[in-house]
Design goal:
Chain B: It holds the Pfam family ThiS. The structure holds two protein chains of two kinds. Chain A is α/β, with parallel strands linked by helices. Chain A is about 35% helix and about 20% strand. Classes of the chains: A alpha/beta, B alpha+beta.
Chain lengths: ~375, ~80
């Protein structure tokens, strides 16, 4: 270890050589080398985190440069992971950096996380965030969650047991992944470059605190930050009961993580757990689009029956409900019904189709 | 009774931080119904409440001068 390089932090009271050795031994995976990932990577590398993984499949574009400060104008068009790794190696040749120029999916995420002690999520979409959360929960990997919107940021440490042995994950905050277009992303909403700079740097600070054991990291806490007022608001998170996480690799691979900001379908396919969570979270109109003779017969007080053969008539009247879940035997006609509603209402309603239908989730329906 | 409302992100565009006089509302579930009917945009969104800086996971009793924060999920990076 180069003591001189790290001298100013080693001499800190409460830090010392021991903390520095912990950093050197740590394996941190940063997913997303963007506005949050760049500053986080810079400080983690500079501080001497010994093993850093960088996962991102994106190439650098000109509109990234105001906030993704590892990249320069000449890098436009290059792979983010390659340029970031080069810059970080120049900055600190004493650490090991591995790049993954891939999109993180449910098929590769478990293998990817396996090699790391701690994950920093700096991605920019809900699909990745729920995927990473569920994978970290399954593998019991500490997750530093950082996200921004407009002039505000959110930061939390998830999946780390507190003094009482309690651990929380992102679904304890938001059990169901938002649908397409529900929450605007940076590309649609805009972002001042310095905001992910601040939140990404805070995420690096929390990572360093967790690794070295200094201070009081944001375990089971959500920090909300407002750049315009410099206000910070810290809330404590406790485990919720209204969702289930995949408990095995097989369950995980069956999860649906819809692309909520890319290929917009106008409706979201959900599973029975998401349906249950939706029902508990807000008022939803549940529509069974099967014909009247089909079995099993569902409780008509809960499920409104509108057979597909009558659906055109149904579309003539206006529906007040904001949230509509469509259900059929196998989840195919319900997609057609969701598309018909989408055509009529556009994005003004949240439309869901139960993927796999009543047959797939028969246990759920037999108890409803 | 009077409670203080704090709002974050997109929600703060239609629910401004404010002192709110509520009558007949004693629990967070009732407050959600009230907020969703007073601010219809909220019912179409994912959001979470925090009562006095504790994330609300079940129906909680609200007392005079409590603070309720309303937040949407953020995904940007």
């Amino acid at each position: 270890m180069e003591s001189e390089r790290y001298n100013r932090q080693i001499i800190l009271s409460g830090f010392g050589k021991e903390a520095q050795l912990r950093l050197l031994a740590a394996k941190v995976l940063v997913i997303g080398a963007g506005g949050l990932g760049c500053p986080a990577l810079q400080y983690l590398a500079a501080a001497g985190v010994g093993h850093i993984g960088i996962a991102d499949d994106d190439h650098i574009s000109l509109s990234n440069l105001h906030r993704q400060i590892l990249f320069s104008t000449a890098d436009v068009g290059q792979l983010k992971t390659a340029v970031a790794a080069n810059r970080l190696r120049e900055m600190n040749p004493g650490i090991d950096i591995v790049t993954y120029p891939i999109s993180v999916t449910k098929n590769n995420v478990l293998d990817l996380l396996e090699n790391y002690d701690l994950i920093l999520d700096g991605t920019d979409n809900f699909e990745s965030r729920y995927l990473i959360n569920d994978a970290c929960a399954l593998l019991s990997k500490p997750l530093v969650f950082a996200a921004v919107s407009g002039y505000e940021g959110q930061l939390a440490i998830l999946n780390v047991a507190d003094d009482q042995g309690l651990r929380t994950n992102y679904r304890d905050l938001f059990p169901v992944q938002p649908g397409a277009g529900e929450i605007p992303n940076c590309a649609e909403n805009g972002v001042l470059g310095v905001l992910p700079g601040i939140i990404g740097t805070m995420a690096a600070a929390e990572t360093i605190k967790l690794i070295t054991g200094i201070g009081k990291p944001l375990i089971n806490e959500l920090l909300h930050y407002n750049l315009l007022t410099q206000a910070q608001y810290k809330m404590s998170i406790s485990p919720a009961q209204d969702y289930t996480l995949p408990k095995t690799k097989t369950d995980f691979l069956k999860m649906e993580y819809q692309d909520s900001c890319g290929l917009s379908t106008g409706y979201t396919e959900i599973n029975a757990d998401q349906l249950q969570a939706l029902q508990q979270e807000r008022s939803v109109l549940l529509i069974d689009v099967r014909e009247r003779h089909e079995v099993p017969i569902l409780n008509k007080e809960i499920f409104t029956q509108v057979p597909m053969s009558e659906f055109d008539n149904f579309l003539l009247a206006d529906i007040d409900a904001e949230n509509i879940v469509l259900i059929c035997q196998h989840g195919i006609r319900s997609v057609a019904a969701a598309e018909a509603l989408q055509e009529k209402y556009g994005d003004s309603k949240n439309l869901y189709s139960l993927k796999g239908g009543i047959i797939k989730w028969r246990d759920y329906f037999s108890t409803t | 009774m009077e409670i203080e409302i704090i709002s974050f992100g997109k929600i703060s565009e239609f629910i401004k931080p404010q002192k709110l006089e509520i009558s007949g509302i004693t629990h967070t579930d009732d407050l959600k119904v009230y907020l969703e009917s007073s601010f219809p945009k909220l019912s179409g969104m994912k959001y979470k409440l925090a009562l006095n800086k504790q994330i609300v996971q079940q129906n909680c009793e609200i007392a005079n001068h409590d603070t309720v924060a309303i937040m949407p999920p953020f995904s940007g990076g």
